[in-house]
Design goal:
Blueprint: E1 3-9, E2 15-19, E3 22-27, E4 33-35, H1 41-49, H2 55-61, E5 62-70, E6 76-79, E7 96-98, H3 99-102, E8 115-123
Antiparallel strand pairs: 1-2, 1-8, 3-4, 3-5, 5-6, 5-7
Length: 124
């Protein structure tokens, strides 16, 4: 079972949603992303796509939304960094990073701390 984590700066108040840094989704017939709750992700996939969905359809219609930060304006949002162009919905900058890409690096906000991933001890 994966452990839920906190993601934050060691120096300033910059923090991200608690969890794993991303979550699985499946697109419905209207193209909307439906969250696939853990640990029953595939149950949600089959509920949306049908019990006889092919592996190809599942690959096409699923992905992982990551918690993201725009390095230009510091907006936080969710996006699939593997399937969508990296573009901030606020300022349209392409300087977008997933929180997991920021872990261990210098805080983009205060430049004095480090982005850390902290194990909460909570398993899900």
């Amino acid at each position: 079972m994966p452990v839920i984590c906190n993601y934050r700066c060691t120096h300033c108040e910059l923090s991200f949603p608690q969890g794993w840094g991303s979550y699985m989704y499946v697109k419905n017939s209207r193209g909307e992303k439906v969250v696939c709750p853990h640990p029953a992700e595939m149950g949600a996939v089959y509920e949306v796509l049908g019990k006889d969905a092919t592996d190809e359809l599942i690959r096409e219609m699923t992905g992982h939304n990551s918690d993201c930060l725009c390095l230009s304006c510091l907006s936080q949002f969710e996006m699939d960094v593997d399937k969508e162009p990296r573009s901030c919905p606020g300022c349209h900058s392409n300087q977008v990073r997933a929180v997991l890409e920021l872990v261990g690096g210098v805080c983009p906000k205060c430049k004095g701390g480090t982005i850390v991933e902290e194990d909460t001890g909570i398993q899900c």
